[in-house]
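hey
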């Protein structure tokens, strides 16, 4: 009796698996190519890219280039992407005290990724996975005073 039950379950399992594979298909789910974003920051405290869209879970690669001429000590630029739940001003207040870590407070919750602080003609790239929750996620330069002058933008996660 026990053997017949195991054989019956095996047959049912095989049949269900076969039906699932035929219905669902055998190929893996399509993958979304990574989103590559290239941003330039200048001495006018502006990013040349202020908005871009990504899909939930999509790999994102952001490359920042400082195209200005002013020394890093007075006009360095970075790019920080925050989770949509983080208060930008709270982050900036903490960042203003974090010069030793390129104006990105160490262990601050909600940072999706960031570059190092860049001087003239320097470039840095960082990668992360876009959040799965649709919405607007801020990105900006956290060097003191730059956000308020317009060195900022929005990454929109959209289906």
């Amino acid at each position: 009796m026990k053997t017949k039950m195991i054989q019956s379950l095996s047959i049912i399992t095989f049949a269900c698996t076969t039906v699932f594979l035929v219905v669902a298909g055998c190929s893996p789910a399509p993958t979304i190519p990574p989103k590559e974003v290239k941003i330039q920051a200048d001495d006018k405290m502006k990013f040349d890219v202020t908005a871009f869209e990504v899909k939930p879970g999509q790999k994102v690669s952001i490359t920042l280039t400082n195209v200005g001429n002013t020394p890093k000590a007075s006009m360095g630029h970075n790019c920080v992407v925050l989770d949509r739940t983080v208060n930008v001003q709270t982050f900036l207040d903490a960042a203003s005290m974090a010069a030793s870590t390129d104006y990105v407070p160490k262990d601050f919750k909600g940072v999706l990724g960031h570059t190092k602080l860049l001087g003239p003609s320097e470039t840095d790239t960082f990668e992360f996975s876009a959040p799965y929750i649709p919405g607007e996620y801020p990105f900006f330069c956290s060097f003191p005073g730059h956000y308020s002058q317009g060195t900022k933008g929005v990454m929109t996660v959209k289906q």
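The chain has a mean pLDDT of 88. The chain has one domain: 35-157.
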